[in-house]
Design goal:
single chain, about 425 residues, Cytochrome Bc1 Complex, Chain C, two-stranded antiparallel ribbon, 17 helices, binds protoporphyrin IX containing FE
Length: about 425
């Protein structure tokens, strides 16, 4: 790509922020009138001995002290740069951030035959942004109470202009987001991107996946239809077999059974707690993406398999944008052509319909529980799953080979087994339940 070989555009590397430099140095003795008390004071005792440099601007203020532009040595240190007036205005105020901005401009993404997989983190981010936007719009009409939830849901689907589209996009984007995160997780796993120094990217990513699954679980109940009601009944029952689990179930449900209280809890988790937590962890994850840059698979550099680098800004971001446009087209297509069903209002007194199952991303665990139906089996399944999850989260710290830039085939096999377990169990639920229809 042409950009890789070019120097950063003049506009992107502004003239050095003179006030910062000036402010740090003491004014030379005898320099012109100090503009403010203290401004010309030498910063250190030895400063007076310093050889007379070309007079630093007299009015240099100690950093952190605001001075009106007229008193500054150079009211606009960026006047020579090719930045727009607006960008210059911000630059003048936030010049301390310049090193960060410059860093981001120089970030590069390696190009090789597996580069395709670098798009899935960005796609996960895109669908999350869609979730926030559509979720906030749905919130204008949705009512999280036992009596009103289903009616408001019908109202959104039937009466609100484009409400049906928003609801379908929210429901489809939730599924696509989680799908992208699984692809992102396994692709970073097989490329061993979690290896030193990106251990915390993996851990924060794993937490993001758990939180996103929490979004899916809590959102599922919100329409308050029969399917969601009974699936939540089954889902929240699971921890009961573990010691102390009954207490957890009671907290989740807001009582012994799934009821209007449960809806309130799921709603608050869905629209307040989880978004807050995700934004926090996501900020950490994306900051690390920028600080640590993108890794290349082990041995690629040495073997000459890197075909060059894309500048993150603007080249890679533009390519990400193309991925987002494709994702958006797919989302609208699915939302219009394959609408999610509305169902019938939940009725706690009705008997559970056949074919109750959770969302597809919980099917693997669901199947494991079904397979472990013997005495003490459910507890064993929960223990196995918890241990598996913790080991998976700590993989970067266990796989020492990868952290020394050596291949670690045992972990590749481990990843294949985990993937196979998830795919096979998911397919088993799909096959069994599609026969029930
Ligand atoms: C700040 C972000 C979000 C807000 C404000 C929000 C808000 C809402 C609201 C008001 C509903 C109920 C309306 C309805 O059921 O159609 C809903 C449903 C739902 N949400 Fe969210 N949501 C957000 C993020 C997410 C995320 C990140 C996910 C998943 C990864 C998600 C998954 C779901 C699901 C699966 C439903 C049920 C969809 C259905 O069957 O209609 N939401 N959300
Ligand atoms: C809301 C969820 C997530 C978002 C928005 C997100 C976003 C991103 C983005 C934009 C990148 C840089 C480009 C790329 O390699 O795709 C990235 C890198 C990375 N992510 Fe995530 N991610 C999320 C979840 C996860 C999960 C679930 C994991 C794994 C458990 C994970 C692990 C990583 C790792 C290890 C990298 C470094 C890749 C490299 O340098 O080659 N992330 N993430």
């Amino acid at each position: 790509m042409a950009e890789n070989t070019q120097k950063p555009a003049a506009g992107s590397a502004p003239a050095k922020p003179k006030p910062a430099a000036g402010a740090a140095k003491p004014a030379a003795p005898g320099a012109a009138k100090p503009a403010a008390p203290g401004a010309a004071k030498p910063a250190a005792p030895g400063a007076a001995k310093a050889p007379a440099k070309p007079a630093a601007p007299a009015a240099a203020a100690p950093s952190g002290v605001f001075k009106p532009p007229v008193d500054r040595p150079d009211p606009n240190p960026f006047k020579d740069s090719k930045m727009s007036a607006v960008a210059g205005w911000f630059q003048e105020r936030f010049y301390v951030l310049n090193p960060i901005i410059d860093y981001l401009k120089h970030k590069e993404v390696p190009k090789h035959r597996l580069s395709f997989w670098y798009y899935f983190g960005g796609l996960g981010l895109f669908f999350f942004i869609i979730q926030i936007l559509t979720g906030l719009l749905l919130l204008q009409y949705y009512k999280p109470t036992e009596t009103d939830a289903f009616a408001s849901f019908l109202f959104i689907q039937g009466e609100v202009p484009f409400g049906w589209l928003l609801r379908q996009i929210h429901a489809w984007s939730a599924n696509l987001m989680i799908m992208m995160l699984f692809i992102h997780m396994f692709s970073t796993f097989f490329m061993k991107s979690y290896r030193k120094p990106r251990e915390l990217m993996w851990v924060s990513g794993f937490l993001l996946l758990v939180l996103s699954l929490g979004f899916g679980f809590t959102g599922y109940l919100l329409p308050w239809n029969e399917l969601a009601f009974f699936a939540t009944q089954v889902g929240t029952e699971v921890p009961k077999v573990a010691p102390g689990g009954a207490f957890l179930v009671e907290i989740l449900r807001g009582g012994p059974e799934v009821s209007g209280e449960t809806l309130t809890r799921m709603f608050s988790l869905h629209v307040v707690l989880l978004p807050g937590l995700v934004l926090l962890v996501l900020t950490a994850h994306l900051t690390m993406v920028q600080i640590l840059g993108t890794s290349a698979p082990i041995g690629y550099k040495e073997a000459g398999l890197i075909k060059g680098y894309d500048k993150f800004f603007p080249t890679f971001l533009a390519k990400d944008g193309i991925g987002w446009l494709i994702g958006f087209a797919l989302l609208v297509y699915l939302a219009v052509v394959f609408p999610w069903e509305i169902g019938v209002k939940a009725d706690a007194l009705a008997s559970a319909p056949v074919g109750i199952k959770p969302e597809w991303y919980f099917w693997a665990q669901f199947q494991l529980l079904k397979d472990f139906k013997f005495e003490g089996g459910e507890l064993l399944a929960i223990i196995l799953f918890t241990i598996g999850g913790v080991v998976w989260m700590l993989v970067p710290f266990i796989d020492r080979q990868a952290s020394q830039e050596k291949k670690s085939p045992i972990f590749t096999v481990f990843g294949i087994l985990v993937l196979a377990f998830l795919l096979i169990n998911t397919y088993r639920v799909y096959a069994e339940y599609s026969m029930l229809k």
